[in-house]
Specification:
pyridoxal phosphate (chains A, B), D-amino Acid Aminotransferase, Chain A, domain 2, alpha+beta, D-amino Acid Aminotransferase, Chain A, domain 1, homodimer, six-stranded mixed barrel, amino-acid biosynthesis (chains A, B), Aminotrans_IV_CS (chains A, B)
Chain lengths: 328, 328
Amino acid sequence: MLTIDWTREGGWGIPVIEEFGDLAISPAATGLHYGIQCFEGMKCYFSPSDDSLRLFRPDLNMARMNSSMQRLAMPGFDGGEMIELLKKFCEVEKEWVPKGAGYSLYLRPTAIGTHPFLGVDVSDHVKLFVIASPVGPYYPTGFKPVSLFADSTNKRAWPGGVGSFKVGGNYGPTILPAKEAMEKGFNQILWMFGDDDEVTECGAMNLFFVVQEGDKKVLWTAPLSRGDILPGVTRKSIIDLCESWDGIEVRESFPKMPEIKKASQEGRLLEAFGAGTAAVVSPIERINYNGYDINIPATGELTSKVWDELNGIYYGDIEGPEGWSVRV
Amino acid sequence: MLTIDWTREGGWGIPVIEEFGDLAISPAATGLHYGIQCFEGMKCYFSPSDDSLRLFRPDLNMARMNSSMQRLAMPGFDGGEMIELLKKFCEVEKEWVPKGAGYSLYLRPTAIGTHPFLGVDVSDHVKLFVIASPVGPYYPTGFKPVSLFADSTNKRAWPGGVGSFKVGGNYGPTILPAKEAMEKGFNQILWMFGDDDEVTECGAMNLFFVVQEGDKKVLWTAPLSRGDILPGVTRKSIIDLCESWDGIEVRESFPKMPEIKKASQEGRLLEAFGAGTAAVVSPIERINYNGYDINIPATGELTSKVWDELNGIYYGDIEGPEGWSVRV
């Protein structure tokens, strides 16, 4: 693992790559009491095209981590230098990067407040660390579409809250509702907001719909403008790709569940999928909304096209836009 | 410190009281990534009346900690047994309980997910620990009234969120807004919610107003019913006391800032104070609302009466309601 300590007096210390092992943390550390913690999810891919290791848009992860840390009054860092450290880390750990389609080394940059002080205050000590784990294909036997329960009770985030930051406190509270949804027979939760049941996210992923409007196909997802949606790297990449493609219009506005239900009833709801680093895209086949089942064609054309394109870029088989695939 | 580990297979392990020291925590522990962490604040008081150590309504802290843990899909525990452990802990550490008015041993029961698993899922390993620190009088030279900045941008909590649980993720996001308010010359933030600027809490305290309505004095605070207000032990105790007193009516509903401003302009805003374990009561002398300063008589009659009564019960000088002051 890679660790770097920060103190208010001394700034960032010397980065160390060392054997994975327990951290010694004061029981009074702010990271254990006040949710002073944030993380990123990234992957390092082996590209058979040139035997290289590659990261995908690491600049976006570093920008988001900086923004998460600063929201929790932790220090910022130099994203470019951190990418160099991540490259070094991947190089040192290269034997852990598995080869083959769908395989990668998952990287988890994390920052926690280590200041042993029980006042709810700015942390004077911070630890940034990166751990890693080899991961296999998310869909070893082809896409496995998921079912969602549209939760009208629990809200993942709120305007004026911290839903647009990747902070720990956004995740813990989702586990119990997700467990309850699973006990009802669903895979994940669809998070709604507001009196008109706006669709925000699903599980820990951004959520996309594809709807037919006249002779147009529209890719529809919640916007970042209100500050309650996580600015996903996969989300942004899908939007960037679709904006460059013919035949699909991108719409960033809050879909309302009644609109989605209506589109489904009129046969205009063509596709739906979650998007995130772990699954890339996760096709949705059913959404239960107020007891009504909205059924969606399991894996649509655009879902597959996005999947193929992104995976192609991840593994260096497709030359993506400049700066997306970064050689270690 | 007191530590108890829990595993899904083995349940709660043997409690250990040991020297204060760093915890060995896996860098993959859920408590460091997903905000699987909650805490309580309590105090152990030395009572000169009978040379006893006392806790104040520990059953309420244990009930709230159970509810926080379960909200984060952590296991529950037996509150009564935990109080016995806390008593044992205070007895062992009795030399750390300072004597004198306003002095106490602050106790911090905390629970964190220690399961080293990066999926956002139920934690199979949990650590509950209690650390302690002697604390002195919050107001060594008499009450020090605070000024509040009514924040119209940041929201501490929301319906469908976890504002009624004492989970870590509620605290980290308040630090940056509080720092900004301090830079503007205020001590703390007054948290509002909704289009009509309902008053919810201030800083990390519950918030009370005392207003004159005709010949009635009303103690006014936000209700717990919507699930976005922390069920404070001090809050409940103040309500319980005032309900037993003549001449004051307790109202649990959301005060709206325009109503508070109007009451102030009409000379009917008599008192305002925050309430919590650390400060007990914290008189408020000024609230800045949309640039307008609401000035409040610095420390009112009821604030002082509540202060005297609660401190009397904490230290055993006043015999409070049954079960409030618990001898170690």
